[in-house]
Write a structure and sequence with these properties.
This protein is an alpha+beta fold. The protein has 2 helices and 10 strands. It is flat and about 45 Å long.
Length: 152
């Protein structure tokens, strides 16, 4: 069993590659999470988790991460990804992620809406939110990625 993460950060990055997998890997590297093992998690930020934008995670670590991404091999296509964390006053937070064939502004608006809805659904008051987003115009094979890695 993994311990409950105590720290987190948000990242959003885009990159090109020769294939969708290498574009994804290059986006991970650009987002400073390319040398860790992502464990995909859903939408809850643990209570009292501390935002640490300078968090350094050792290579090879198993890292609970909420993330969204999109890859495309259509030159000229606009792709975007975003992730957001909604904060309550004194309990857990909620994470939402999205990606699509659209602009950065569109994914940011979608994240804001999803966070508001998630807090309403839980009967909680949304005190604040942090959002990271990126858009990318595909050259050959591109990837847009947004993530919230959580660590100990």
């Amino acid at each position: 069993m993994l311990p409950t993460p105590k720290k987190f950060f948000l990242t959003a990055a885009a990159a090109e590659g020769h294939s969708e997998l290498t574009a994804f890997d290059n986006a991970l590297l650009a987002g400073k999470i390319g040398n860790i093992n992502l464990l995909k998690v859903s939408s809850i930020l643990p209570p009292a988790a501390e935002y640490d934008p300078d968090l350094v995670i050792p290579p090879g670590s198993l890292v609970p991460t909420a993330y969204g991404y999109i890859c495309s091999d259509v030159p000229g296509e606009l792709i975007a990804a975003a992730v957001g964390v909604g904060f309550s006053e004194d309990t857990f937070g909620v994470i939402m992620e999205t990606a699509g064939r659209c602009s950065r502004d569109e994914v940011v608006a979608k994240i804001e809406s999803m966070l508001r809805e998630a807090f309403i659904s839980r009967g909680m008051e949304l005190k604040d939110m942090k959002i990271a987003a990126v858009e990318h115009r595909v050259e050959k094979v591109g990837c847009a990625l947004a993530a919230v890695p959580m660590y100990y």
